[in-house]
Amino acid sequence: MARLYTSNVSIGYGERLIVKDLSVEIPDKKITTIIGPNGCGKSTLLKATTRIIPHQSGSVILDGENISKENTKKLAKKMAILPQTPEGAGGLTVGELVSYGRFPYQKGFGRLTKQDIEVIDWALEVTGIKDFKFRPVDALSGGQRQRVWIAMALAQETEIIFLDEPTTYLDMAHQLEVLELLQKLNAEQGRTIVMVLHDLNQAARFADYIIALKDGEIVKAGSCEEVMTPSVLRKVFQIDAEIGRDPRTNKPMCITYNLIKGEERNEEASIPAPIAAYANS
């Protein structure tokens, strides 16, 4: 049994369910990516799994305990999350924002210890923003700000890190830097990484395990080879994909694709999601 898993979780806003009776295990000390079309429940699943939002039914279990009953500081020492659109950095310097990652370890008046400062400096170093430590976050570019938020998540020193589209606002080089950093943290420190990615080839290149969602339900979960197939991508994204091999990693990659049009697309769209998933499984 995995350390972290959901059991028949349903999540929604008001009366509208986004994720329905979803059960999934997150592999320990691996990189998991979640893919799927906009609005399918990727971010909602991340938020509920990290207790940012509540779930209507079911349970999220970490180390045998239901996270809804877990002490907040204790939980924050086990998992960190970088939201899709982090907010609340107005007036703070880079170093001050990253220091917030040390909150679960602070006692008394919340003063930073020598160990806290060392961890903060390490997080700034590995994310390439050490020179910005005393600069206001508001003065940075979008890509630089994204790296500050990632540094804050790293400073939390958790065994599990969730990231919702961590490459947003970054150019291609910085996207690769961030993903390679997460891969290094996984390989060298055994961190469990769970992230939402829109780029299918990045998801396949860096993931050990992929969860493909559509309409709040899992279409397929498994290895890159099991998920990055024309049939799965057809069900999830309604595209006709050509799958090949990355010449550098030998991982599957989407070489090109066409949008499915006409009667075939309309027929699939007219079938209720649970029936369509069952019929095409």
UniProtKB/TrEMBL annotation:
Q: Which parts of the sequence belong to the ABC transporter domain?
A: 4-240
Q: Which GO terms describe its biological process?
A: iron ion transport
SUPFAM superfamilies in the record, alphabetically? P-loop containing nucleoside triphosphate hydrolases
| Main localization, broad class | membrane
Its Gene Ontology cellular component terms are: plasma membrane
Q: Name one Pfam family in it.
A: ABC_tran
* InterPro entries xrefs: AAA+_ATPase (IPR003593), ABC_transporter-like_ATP-bd (IPR003439), ABC_transporter-like_CS (IPR017871), P-loop_NTPase (IPR027417), Siderophore_ABC-ATPase (IPR051535)
Q: Where in the cell is it found?
A: Cell membrane
* SMART domains associated with the record: AAA
- The answer, when asked if rRNA-binding is one of the entry's keywords, is no
PANTHER family linked: IRON(3+)-HYDROXAMATE IMPORT ATP-BINDING PROTEIN FHUC
Record's protein name: Iron-enterobactin transporter ATP-binding protein
Q: In the record, what lineage is assigned to the organism producing the protein?
A: Bacteria, Bacillati, Bacillota, Bacilli, Bacillales
